[in-house]
Write a structure and sequence with these properties.
Layout (H helix, E strand, L loop, with lengths): L1 E4 L11 H7 L3 E4 L7 H8 L4 E4 L8 H5 L6 E4 L9 H6 L3 E3 L6 H16 L2 H9 L15 E5 L3 H12 L3 E5 L5 H7 L2 E2 L2 H7 L2 E4 L13 H4 L7 E4 L8 H9 L5 E4 L19 E3 L8 H19 L13
Parallel strand pairs: 1-2, 1-3, 3-4, 4-5, 6-7, 6-9, 7-8, 9-10, 10-11, 11-12
Helix pairs in contact: 1-12, 5-7
């Protein structure tokens, strides 16, 4: 069995116990450069029986999969599956797995860090002091404010618990509300319009699917209070980025903390980098030594279980 890792750049799998464990299964070919070019990815995978996908920017399109006649498994390190054409994979009998929950704590902590930093204007204060200033602006206090979560999966649940620990009132909206979960988390499900109109902080925790593309669109952004903040550690595709830039530039919302973007890496000269009320991080929310090792082990375990005929963490194509 040939297992190909087409995109370990920057290195995540190389040098870890998970790679040693992977090599015990069978032959492994690991590439330490990008595979964003479809021709490069196709060439690397043409003889592969299984692939371990490290980077979300590597796109397993229908065209790429067509050139991989032996491929039977794509084991994704991470939760997001928007870089894989799930319909095409299903049509070719290719199983797709991911590692849900491996980085939930890390992403939730990063989400809360963004909330604290952007609301308390920490980057602005730091910049001003480095330029000789001594800013003493009045900034919002979090206790008693409303945190609106869009999505209550594993990460959203952790953010809910941390938010309550900060004294925030937590409300949520999701496609499939769960009354028992709401009780256990101490939150209340509300209609989406109410969440957007009344929340002081709106935090996104949905998967990127055709149904969630630009979910926070121009019309929904217009419902936010001028004192509200938007935080996104899920996927850039969830927000209409051009509309968000307009809102921030015209101070129709107070600010944003963003870890994910419509195009990654963020292109040079992007309008977001010019806005003082935005805090940007480079899609690194889930990157901690702890979560990396847990996720890599899960990705290898998914291959082991697939070969035993008991696949785990299988991602289904939900066709219409």
């Amino acid at each position: 069995m040939l297992i190909v890792v087409p995109d370990d750049n920057p290195p995540a799998l190389a040098g870890t116990p998970a790679l040693a464990r992977l090599r015990k299964i069978d032959e492994v070919r690991l590439y330490d450069s990008d595979a964003t070019d479809p021709a490069v990815l196709g060439d690397r995978l043409k003889d592969a029986d299984a692939a371990v996908n490290i980077r979300g920017r590597t796109r397993f399109t229908a065209e790429v999969l067509q050139g991989c006649p032996k491929l039977k498994l794509i084991s994704i390190w991470g939760t997001g599956t928007d870089n894989v054409d799930l319909q095409a994979a299903a049509a070719r009998g290719i199983t797709v797995t991911n590692t849900p929950g491996a980085n939930a704590l890390a992403v939730a902590e990063h989400t809360v860090a963004l909330i604290l930093a952007v609301v308390k204007q920490l980057p602005q204060a730091d910049r001003a002091m480095r330029q000789g200033g001594w800013p003493r602006n009045l900034v919002p206090q979090l206790r008693g404010k409303r945190l609106g979560l869009i999505g209550t999966g594993l990460i959203g649940r952790e953010v809910a618990a941390m938010g309550r620990g900060l004294g925030l009132e937590v409300v949520a909206w999701t496609f499939h509300p769960n009354a028992n979960l709401a009780v256990s988390l101490g939150l209340r499900y509300v209609e989406l319009d109410e969440l957007l109109r009344t929340s002081d902080i709106v935090s996104l925790h949905l998967r990127a699917t055709p149904d969630t593309l630009r979910f926070l669109n121009r019309d929904r952004l217009s419902l936010l209070k001028p004192t509200a903040f938007v935080v996104n550690t899920a996927r850039g595709a969830l927000i209409d980025e051009a509309a968000l830039v307009e809102c921030l530039r015209e101070n129709r919302i107070a600010g944003a903390g963003l870890d994910v973007f419509a195009t990654e890496p963020l292109p040079g000269g992007h309008p977001l980098v010019t806005l003082p009320n935005v805090l940007l991080t480079p899609h690194c929310a889930g990157m901690t030594p702890d979560s990396n090792l847990i996720g890599l082990d899960m990705a290898v375990e998914n291959i082991e279980n697939f070969l035993k005929g008991k696949p785990t963490h299988v991602v289904a194509w939900l066709g219409k």
